[in-house]
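Researcher: Quick sanity check before group meeting.
Model: Go ahead. Protein one:
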Amino acid sequence: MSEHILIAVFLPTFFFVSITPGMCMTLAMTLGMSIGVRRTLWMMIGELAGVALVAVAAVMGVAAMMLNYPQIFEILKWVGGAYLGYIGIQMWRAKGKMASLDDQNTQISNQALISQGFVTAIANPKGWAFMISLLPPFIDVERAVAPQLSLLLAIIMMTEFVSMLAYASGGKSLKLFLAKGDNIKWLNRIAGSLMIGVGFWLALG
């Protein structure tokens, strides 16, 4: 498959899958609502690193082994899910002011945001299954694998970043809209509920 054909087929395919609401996109929207787009970029760095790792592992065949031993995911899933749920509960409890992950009770560092995105990306078995099913058909085993994988990764990183940026921006817009009136409490509850939902999604998915 030539590079032009690969891009023409793979780009719209992966973009459609990437832009579809999922754990990472919901997390991006919630963080955009809570801490703003700029700080959410740190989570995106971790998520992109996780997605890249999953993609490389899928092509190398490691993902097949991982799917046969799903218990490998359990610790990451439950710890990550519990942490997101805890943050969501703290946001629900905020009343008179805008809940933020930078509040005293829920301080979170840039490194923690990176880890949050990374764990969310690699602890999702559905993400591994998707990469296994999508990537191999686009790899020509008769040609050097590294250049092909590099091109696919570039497409994946671009589409994931654009999608997360769109969701984070949407969250920020929702925050600005709801904050105009006496809707701080509801905004906190929406963001908190989304965060708790992502936590359950991660732990039980």
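Researcher: Fine. The other one?
Model: Protein two, sequence then structure:
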Amino acid sequence: MTNAPIYDATKQRITELVKDRDPQTPVAATPGWSVKDVVAHLAGGLRDFVDRRFDGVESGEWGERQVRDRKDNSLDDAFAEWDANRERAEPLFDSPMGSVLIAEVVAHEHDLRAALGVPGDRDSLAVRAALTKPLQQLDQRMRENEVPALRITLEHGDRVLGHGEPAGTLRTTSFELMRAIGGRRSVDQIKALDWDGDPDTWIAALALFGRHRPEPFEE
């Protein structure tokens, strides 16, 4: 099934969320970026997906370049570019890249919600869909690095990451897991979740982008 409807619905929520808001509102989840910068990143990032341009992803320069290149643009400019790039990206949603795009846009929806004080849609299909690709990546990484298997119990069922019998269990919600593995929680916040087993066994492996947030982030 195509990921396009989930992406488009999330894009529409973001549009409604930020309209009539100050585009320069800081977004604490993405330090140094404003509301306008996050939308510019989504617009520019989508074009980079179309062009298969991923230089600087691991270092963080990928997103910073998109924001920097559009620093003189308005929020309206960002939305216009996002609309144009959405049309170009249509074929991606029926490809393996579709689940990556879902993870990206849903994460930033909740970054913006936190910045604007408008929490919501945390138990949605979009949040569950946003975990699809990240959990596949974490499972592969744990297997490759021989990290003991971990059972994750969510509101809609269990998932085992890694190879073999689980050596521990993490019980949480899809939303909290998305934020924890996506760099929006500190190590201490992740350790404070409901664990069976020593969380230190899995903390490093659960950092999707190679690092957790250095300080706690509440939303």
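Researcher: One line on it for the slide.
Model: The CA atoms of residues 151 and 160 lie 4 Å apart.
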